[in-house]
Amino acid sequence: MKRLKVAVIGAGYFSQFHYDAWSRIADVELVGLCEIDRARAELAAARWSVPRIFDDPETMLRETRPDLVDIVTPPPTHFAMVSLAAAHKVHVICQKAFCRDITEAQEAARIADETGIVAVVHENFRFQPWYGEMKRRIEAGELGEIYQARFNLRPGDGQGANAYLDRQPYFQKMEKFLVHETAVHFIDTFRYLFGEIGSVFADLRRQNPVIAGEDAGIILFRHQNGIRSLFDGNRLSDHAASNQRLTMGEMLIEGERGAIRLDGDGRVTQRAFGSNEWTPVALAWDNVGFAGDCVKALQQHVVDHLLKGAPIANAATDYIRNIAIEDAVYLSARTGSIQPIVQTTPAVI
Q1: C-alpha to C-alpha distance for 280 and 56, rounded to whole angstroms
Q2: Can you tell me the distance from the alpha carbon of 320 to that of 101, in angstroms, rounded to the nearest whole number?
Q3: Whole-angstrom Cα distance, residue 136 to residue 145?
Q4: Which end of the chain is more exposed for a tag (fewer CB within 10 A), N or C?
């Protein structure tokens, strides 16, 4: 079997998890990186043994001829980068948030489809190992009919004038923050666990005056199968965890036969209906990379699709639904009303 030649565009904060994951996937050869900041490029290339550095993405694609390009750049660049990859017939993984708005994202997905390339959004939360185990148990019927679910987001990183400055300072300037940057992960995860979302109701607020966007809020998702899921997010509050960014919070799923929950240290426990005992769920995962090594899991998923024909999740055309739901959340918060989700292209959960 051939090795997949991968090039990466971007060397910012989160790219370290991408490069690390690529370096640990056996069927991959990193052939180049593109970054306009030469010092950052040289640090990344040395750390991850990337053989060539570029400051122009087209030159990199032309000279390295990769099979796949990993776009780890801000949303305003995504449309141009996906279009460039399509022109070179190179498959794409693109970081979220995908493009600047739903119109641009739809056009990028259309261009990818028309040129025959695979375009996947790097939405990695559904690849966290605890969610895979929860989904397996739900599908096995261990909880019976699912009634409702709740995730409490409590990273505790949003207090004070220096909030986010040590890691991702641009967070302070984002006019849309909690939902666009963070809750969209759980929009995708809730769809993965509980099925398609039909409507939303949201109450959003800004609690830290030094940032531009909302940093707290409650969102009720009404799934088409009758399940209700609740996202309760506050970036100023914390939760009990040795690493508060591991799970970012805690989840509880309740059904007719019992409940299953996730804590801040990635532990999953399950309780049968009528019992007071929470039983630990056997769950093996590697505490490397980001959040249970979910970045590597996503990238391996794409490699398996390209090299072995395995099914693919979060193709760009399917991911449009997440953006439509995000838009409905903001509209609900502005109007104080329940908002239906406008139909987009058929979705693969």
Answers
A1: 50
A2: 10
A3: 14
A4: N
Phi and psi (nearest 5°) for 102?
Answer: -70, -35
pLDDT tens-place string over residues 200-239: 999 999 999 999 999 999 999 999 999 999 999 999 999 9
The greatest distance separating any two alpha carbons of the chain, rounded to the nearest whole angstrom, comes to 64
pLDDT bin (cut points 50, 70, 90) of residue 118 is very high
Handedness of CA 347, 113, 99, 45 (dihedral sign): positive
- The CATH number of the domain holding residue 201 is 3.30.360.10
The size of the chain, in residues, is 349
Q: Do the domain assignments include residue 347?
A: no
Q: How far is residue 213's CA from residue 236's CA, in Å, rounded to a whole number?
A: 13
Residue 95 sits in the same domain as residue 131: no
CA–CA separation, 110 and 83 (whole Å)? 10
For residue 184, what are the domain limits?
126-283+321-340
Query: How far is the C-alpha of 282 from the C-alpha of 302, rounded, in Å?
Result: 27
Cα torsion angle, 233, 238, 240, 242, sign: positive
Q: pLDDT (tens digit, 9 = 90+) per residue, 249-265?
A: 999 999 999 999 999 99
Rounded Cα–Cα distance for residues 106 and 33 (Å): 27
Cβ atoms within 10 A of the Cβ of 273, count? Answer: 12
Same domain for 130 and 67? no
DSSP 141: T
Whether residues 204 and 325 share a domain: the answer is: yes
As a whole number, mean pLDDT of residues 93-99 equals: 94
pLDDT of 346 strictly over 50:
no
Exposed / middle / buried, residue 122 (Cβ in 10 Å: 0-12, 13-18, 19+): buried
